[in-house]
Structures are given as structure tokens and as C-alpha cells.
Design a protein that fits this description.
The complex is a heterodimer of chains A (about 500) and B (about 220). Chain A has helices at about 35-40, 45-65, 70-85, 90-100, 115-125, 140, 145-150, 160-170, 185-200, 210-230, 255-260, 280-290, 325-330, 345-350, 350-355, 365-375, 385, 395-400, 410-425, 430-445, 445-465, 480, 495-500; strands spanning about 105-110, 130-135, 155-160, 230-235, 240, 245-250, 265-270, 275, 300-305, 315-320, 470, 485. Chain A is of the alpha/beta class and about 500 residues long. Chain A has a domain at about 430-500. Chain A has a 6-stranded parallel beta sheet, sandwiched between helices. In chain A, strands 8-5-6-9 form a 4-stranded mixed beta sheet. Chain A has a two-stranded antiparallel ribbon with strand order 11-12. In chain A, a hairpin with a 4-residue loop joins strand 5 and strand 6. Chain B is α/β, with parallel strands linked by helices. In chain B, a hairpin with a 4-residue loop joins strand 5 and strand 6. In chain B, helix 4 (about 65-75) packs parallel to helix 5 (about 90-95). Chain B is globular. Chain B starts with a helix and ends with a strand. Classes of the chains: A alpha/beta (about 500), B alpha/beta (about 220). Chains A and B meet through helix 2, helix 3, helix 4, helix 8 and helix 10 of A and helix 1, helix 2, helix 6, helix 7 and strand 9 of B. Strand 9 of chain A pairs antiparallel with strand 9 (about 185) of chain B, so a sheet runs across the interface. The structure holds iron/sulfur cluster (SF4) (2 copies).
């Protein structure tokens, strides 16, 4: 995490310690998923809110999807188009760049988070301002841009209602779609009362905790910032390669404010966010709103190609960010995750995410997409990244809802294999690898297998005496048995039963 | 090497397993673009879907558009309107008849000036029935983007033949605007948030009141 130069006061509320970004120089300080999950599970309010949110959106999504007669064909088309882009990314990036420039935008390329932040900081500084308004964006969270700007003495104001609650609450988002879902209305009221006045227009006196009143306070607080902002920062849902058009899909109108009122606009976009042609918009404008907020269409979508004379920002920058995406592309089994349009449907469907919430994942990308994507982008060196692929029951529910048909569970298994391969090279023995070497021997020959089964049956007669399961066991089995019971093996194996009863009848 | 070259060469290296074919040959797709969606009545569906978002919809014959504007302005007691340069003369007059002061965006108003204006009247480019969406392409009869964003009330007049069944048809109709370099704003209902306990609040930053006049 960035720190302010000595003597310089913070401009914006400080987030909690520990990085969740991707590609930051410091190692990830977050503990492994299992420990995070345990802590989060004790937060009953968060669990109740998360369950309410995921269930509501999930059910509504089913209705909206059922209204589209050819939903599966649209999904397949979306998947195919995104595969085209990923498999010919150099071609489409060059096309997008050419058309963006033709339309009057300035294009910048960033290899990693650090370079992206350097570019953004210097663009903002060149404008001589010390604050920016920004739209919620996964890319800017991933590179931890707000903290980089803060370190340079520039305040980045979040303008999405939920992100404002998170920012003023010195907090982190818990869900990519409804980032403040872990807060209830009373907490929001307290946060607004405590913090708003420190950073701008205070809320009205004796504000009740009604959502419309709270939203009204945010409208007034942010309006002041929108009207004076000289620089706006956004992400981008799509870049249309053949026209050089950027697309932002949103609900509240804060996006339109940031994209329209400032003189300078900087959009930070992952290199994979391209769609080939304006025609293809029909596919993604159908898939995204219905999968994301479960609406037929989201309230506002903005599209712009570079600079429009006399309308909106007259200086437009697009920062194309790699930050690990080419690493993902380099893995033919993993590269399908680059189809992702960040709709969050998989999260709302995931039984693990529903219970532990977004904070447990130690990454800006939680849930199924997070455990598929993060270990590919960030690697599997840190304890948290090693643990992510196991935050999953392999129920495959996420595969069914993904609007671009990403084989999420396959990629999660692929990530588990990568972690297991890596463990094999470690010096410490792990239960699974220790067990798997003898298992390898046992499964290779029928004779070996019979021997093992006999031994197990004798041993279990002792271990499982008077019970049909084993609870927590000492090391090296402890990591496995801490959260799982081992059922007693049958007293007789199928093979020996077969030999006794049917063995003669060939 | 520039970062651009580094990224592009990383990509080429990562894709060494991909055959050197044009993208359309590598991943062939069979898709019919711009297909309409079968529905009983496009205008009925459009109206229904807009009402679903709690927008106000007035369906009137084209000749009655000015009278409807006057009625809405009087009812809502809107004091000031910003008018796009290319707005229909009769519509302007109708708003003035309703008692509103019309303000031109010439020279362009500053954001704080716009913020003090109550409403805006615009035309539209395309309507989408299946999703209840209005698309502005910010031609002179709609004005630059800030005009239909900052004031709190938006009266939007859309003509029956601008309304299509579904998103694919709309995208085809909007192509000339994008090719001409225009920005687009897709509006479905109006500003809304469900960020606090998932309870839907209409109106955060965009115009909190969207009044649609569908002219047949
Ligand atoms: S397969 Fe794993 S990640 Fe996907 S929904 Fe099931 S538990 Fe969640
Ligand atoms: S993986 Fe699929 S379902 Fe999940 S966020 Fe991405 S596009 Fe949506």
C-alpha cells in the first residue's frame, strides 16, 4: 500500500490496511482464504445481507433470462466473439488503437499496475488539479489507483453510491455489483453523518435512515464535486474496435456526470475488454444487463468515440492495461476467463460466495471468477492465491449462469493442479501429496490395490471402532480433517465381496 | 522497447499455439445481425416497458405534441427549460406557453449554470420496445450530453416510427450516428440505485423525472 509523504495529510478517507490489488510491488499480506472465511462467517449481519442480495438478484436474473427466447444462442455468440478477440488480441488492439486515435483520443499502454498509475498520475498532474471524480471500475481497483493518486496528493472521489459508502466507511467492497451490501441503512447513516462533512457537503441535520433520504444526501454531496471537477476517471465495459467507441454501462447517472462534465477524461481499461465491431453490441447489450443487475436494460449506457467537438471532455485518454492479462493469455486452458464481462452472475450463484462474502477472497475479484482469474493473473506464490482455487465445492453452478460460457469449474480445477504441482516442489510434506504418492502406487496394479484395501479394512476396524466417521485428526491430516469428517470405509471392499460371491461365475 | 511493443510481443508469444488465420476463419460464427423480435404490438410493448420503470408516458397523435408539452409544463410548474439549438419551434413555443422561461445553450452554459435550470426538452433517435429504452444520439434536436443530464426533469419526445422491437434492430439504426462520431446515451427509465439494502431508489444523479411523449 502506498503511504503519503511525511507531513502530507490524506485527502480521502484511508482504506483498511493490506493490499487486494493485482500486480502491486508489495507481497499480499492477506491470510489464506480458510482463515478469512472463518472470520467472515462469524459476521451474521454480513451473512444475512449477502444471502438476501444473492438470492434476490439470482431469482430476478432467472426471470429476465427466461424472457429471451434464444438466450443460449446469444451466450454462444458472446463466447465466440470474445474468443475471437482473445485469440487475435494483437490484431484487435491495433485496430482499436487506430480508431481511438482517429476519433481524437490519446492512447497509452501500461505493462503493469505501477506503469498504469504513473501514466494516470502524470496526466492528472499535467492538468494542475488535486482532485478527480471517478466511476466505479474493477480495473482501477485492481491497480489500486486511488492510493497511488493519494500518494501524489490527488484526491480520487468515488461517485457510485455504494463506493461512496465504502470509501467514507474506510472499507472495502464486498461484492463487485453491490459493493456496500455488507452495510445496513443504519450503518450508512452513521458513516454519512460522521464523514461527509469532513470531505465536502455534509448531510442534512437529523437525517433519518431511509434509503431515499440517504441517496438524496449523496446526490447533494456529490453534485458539488461533479460541478467543479476538471478531470474524470472511468473504466470501460467495452471498447468497440472498428469504431474506436468506448462503452460504459451504469445505473445511477454518476457515470454520465464523470464522462460528460469534466474537461479531461481518462479511461483505464484492460486489454481484453475489446469487442470486434459495433454490430456486436447487440449481443453484449443483451447479455450484460440481464446477467448483471437482472434488468432488461440498465438505466444508463454511455458510448463515445474520442472527442466530440462541443460536447463533453475535449481531452480524452485511454489507458490500455496488461497487468497480468497476457500471462492469462499464455495459458491455453485458462485463457477462457478473458471472456469475462464482469457481470457478477457467477458470484450470486456460488454457495461459497453467498456464505463468506467478498472480503474473504483477499482479491478485488471474489467468487467464482475471482478464484479462476486471480491465481492466473497474480500467480500462485502467496498463501492466499494458493488457497483460492480451493474456495469451491465444484458444484458447477457458476458455469451455467455465465453469459459468455466460461468453463469456470474447469479452470478452477486447472488452478488446483497448478497449486498441487507447485506443492510437489516444496520441502514441507502436505497430506494430499504424501497420500497421493502411495495412492499412485496402489492404483497402478490390481495386486497393489488389493493389498491396500486389506490393510485399510484391518486398520479401520481399529480406528472406526464404535463410530462411522473420524473427526479432527492430528497433523499431517489436520488441514484436511479440520473442516471435514472422514466416513468409515466399508468393512468389506467391493472387490473382496465380488470375489467371494460372484468370483466363480465368469 | 515501448510498453506498447512489450505488450504486443507478450501477446504474440502467448498466442503461438493459435493458427495464423483471419479471426473469422479461426472462430467461425453464424449469426444474423439486426434481427427483429416478434411481438404483438411494438408501441404497446414500448409503453408498457417504460411504465415498468416508473417513467411517465403520454401517447398522443403527432399534432397534439405541443399541447401535451404545454400541459406537462403547466402541471409540473417547471420554471426554466434549457432548449437544444435544433429543437422543433412548435415545441419551444409550447413550453413557453406553459409558463416556462426558455434558456438557450448559446454560448454554452457552464455546469453550475445548467445546475440551476429545472428541465430540458429533447427529441430522441431510437426507442427499443423490448427493454423500454430511449437512445439519444445528441444531434442538434437533442443537444450536447450535459443538457439532458444536469437538469432534474427531462421531457423526451419520441416518434412512433423511431421505435423498434429489440436491441439488434436499434444497433443497426444507430450505426450512422456512431459512424458520424456522435456519442450515444441509452436511457431506460432513469437514474436508480439499489445500493442500500437492495431497496430501489429512483433518482440519484440523472434527471429524477423522465416524461416521455410518444407521438403517433
Ligand atoms: S463450482 Fe465452485 S466456484 Fe462455481 S459455484 Fe460451485 S462452489 Fe462456487
Ligand atoms: S465469469 Fe461469467 S458470470 Fe462471472 S462475472 Fe465473468 S462473465 Fe459474469
Amino acid at each position: 500500500m502506498s503511504t503519503n509523504p511525511p507531513g502530507q495529510a490524506r485527502r480521502t478517507p484511508a482504506p483498511p490496511k493490506g493490499t487486494v490489488g493485482i500486480g502491486q510491488p508489495e507481497p499480499v499480506a492477506s491470510p489464506v482464504f480458510r482463515e478469512n472465511a472463518k472470520k467472515q462467517l462469524q459476521n451474521t449481519l454480513m451473512r444475512r445481507n449477502m444471502k438476501h442480495a444473492t438470492t434476490t438478484i439470482r431469482n430476478k436474473r432467472l426471470l429476465r433470462v427466461a424472457e429471451v427466447p434464444n438466450w443460449d444462442e446469444v451466450r454462444a455468440q458472446g463466447a465466440g466473439l470474445k474468443d475471437r478477440v482473445a485469440r487475435h488480441l494483437d490484431y484487435y488492439l491495433a485496430m482499436a488503437e487506430e480508431n481511438l486515435i482517429k476519433a481524437g483520443a490519446q492512447v497509452h499502454w501500461a505493462k503493469d499496475a505501477q506503469e498504469a498509475n504513473q501514466i494516470i498520475v502524470s496526466l492528472v498532474k499535467a492538468k494542475g488539479v488535486d482532485e478527480v471524480v471517478k466511476i466505479k471500475s474493477m480495473a482501477t481497483q485492481e491497480i489500486e489507483m486511488n492510493e497511488a493518486l493519494e500518494a501524489a496528493g490527488i484526491a480520487a472521489w468515488e461517485t457510485d453510491l455504494a463506493e461512496l459508502i465504502v470509501q467514507l466507511g474506510h472499507d472495502r467492497p464486498s461484492h463487485i455489483l453491490v459493493p456496500a451490501i455488507h452495510r445496513n441503512r443504519e450503518e450508512v447513516r452513521e458513516i454519512f453523518n460522521r464523514e461527509m462533512g469532513r470531505y465536502g457537503t455534509p448531510p442534512p441535520k437529523n437525517m433519518p435512515n431511509d434509503p431515499p433520504v440517504l441517496a438524496g444526501a449523496a446526490r447533494v454531496h456529490l453534485r458539488e464535486k461533479f460541478l467543479r471537477a476538471k478531470v474524470g476517471i472511468s473504466g470501460g465495459n467495452m471498447i468497440i474496435a472498428d469504431t474506436g467507441t468506448m462503452v460504459i454501462v451504469e445505473s445511477e447517472g454518476n457515470g454520465r456526470m464523470c464522462l460528460t462534465l469534466p474537461e479531461t477524461l481518462i479511461s483505464v481499461v484492460g486489454v481484453e475488454k475489446i469487442i470486434p465491431s459495433f454490430d456486436d453490441l447487440e449481443v453484449f447489450m443483451k447479455l450484460l444487463p440481464r446477467s448483471s443487475t437482472a434488468e432488461r436494460m440498465n438505466p444508463y449506457t454511455s458510448m463515445w468515440s474520442g472527442v466530440t467537438p462541443g460536447d463533453g471532455p475535449q481531452e480524452v485518454h485511454v489507458v490500455l492495461v496488461d497487468n497480468g492479462r497476457t500471462k492469462v493469455l499464455d495459458d491455453p486452458e485458462g485463457r477462457f476467463v478473458l471472456r469475462c464481462i464482469r457481470c457478477s452472475a457467477c458470484m450470486n450463484k456460488c454457495p461459497v460466495f453467498e456464505r463468506v462474502g467478498g472480503h474473504a477472497y483477499g482479491s478485488v475479484y471474489p467468487g467464482p471468477i475471482g478464484i479462476a482469474l486471480t491465481p492466473l493473473m497474480r500467480g500462485i506464490d502467496s498463501p492466499i492465491d494458493k488457497s483460492l482455487p480451493f474456495a469451491c465445492t465444484l458444484c458447477c453452478a457458476c458455469d451455467d449462469v455465465c453469459p459468455v460460457k466460461i468453463p469456470l469449474s474447469d479452470i478452477i480445477v486447472h488452478n488446483r493442479n497448478r497449486v498441487a504441482d507447485k506443492k510437489r516442489h516444496d520441502i514441507h510434506p502436505h497430506l494430499e501429496t504424501t497420500v497421493m504418492i502411495p495412492a499412485d502406487w496402489a492404483f497402478k496394479k490390481a495386486k497393489h490395490f488389493e493389498l491396500v484395501q486389506k490393510a485399510v479394512s484391518i486398520a479401520s476396524g481399529i480406528a472406526f471402532k464404535n463410530k462411522d466417521y473420524l473427526g479432527p485428526m492430528p497433523w499431517p491430516a489436520s488441514p484436511w480433517t479440520r473442516a471435514r469428517d472422514i466416513p468409515a470405509p466399508p468393512v468389506e471392499s467391493f472387490r473382496s465381496w465380488w470375489a467371494k460371491n460372484r468370483g466363480g461365475a465368469k | 522497447m515501448s510498453s506498447r511493443d512489450v505488450i504486443l510481443s507478450r501477446i504474440r508469444k502467448a498466442l503461438s499455439d493459435v493458427p495464423n488465420l483471419p479471426p473469422e476463419k479461426d472462430i467461425p460464427l453464424n449469426w444474423e445481425y439486426g434481427k427483429p423480435l416478434a411481438m404483438d404490438d411494438v408501441l404497446d410493448t414500448f409503453t408498457q416497458m417504460c411504465l415498468d420503470y416508473k417513467a411517465v408516458v403520454e401517447r398522443v397523435p403527432v399534432a397534439e405534441v405541443p399541447a401535451t408539452i404545454t400541459k406537462l409544463v403547466t402541471e409540473r410548474q417547471v420554471k426554466t427549460f434549457v432548449v437544444p439549438a435544433g429543437l422543433d419551434q412548435d415545441w419551444r413555443k409550447a413550453a413557453a406557453d406553459g409558463g416556462a422561461k426558455l434558456i438557450e445553450d448559446d454560448p454554452p452554459l457552464s455546469s453550475p449554470e445548467l445546475n440551476d435550470i429545472d428541465g430540458v426538452i429533447t427529441a430522441a433517435r431510437v426507442g427499443i420496445a423490448d427493454t423500454g429504452t430511449i437512445v439519444l444520439d445528441h444531434a442538434p434536436d437533442q443537444g450536447r450530453r450535459a443538457l439532458s443530464l444536469v437538469p432534474d426533469l427531462h421531457i423526451c419526445v419520441i416518434l412512433a416510427d423511431q421505435v423498434v422491437s429489440d436491441v439488434p434492430e436499434a444497433v443497426q439504426r444507430l450505426k450512422p450516428s456512431i459512424v458520424a462520431g456522435n456519442p450515444l446515451t441509452w436511457i431506460s427509465g432513469g437514474s436508480a440505485t439499489s445500493d442500500i439494502e437492495l431497496s430501489r431508489v429512483e433518482g440519484v444523479h440523472g434527471p429524477r423525472k423522465l416524461l416521455i411523449i410518444l407521438a403517433e
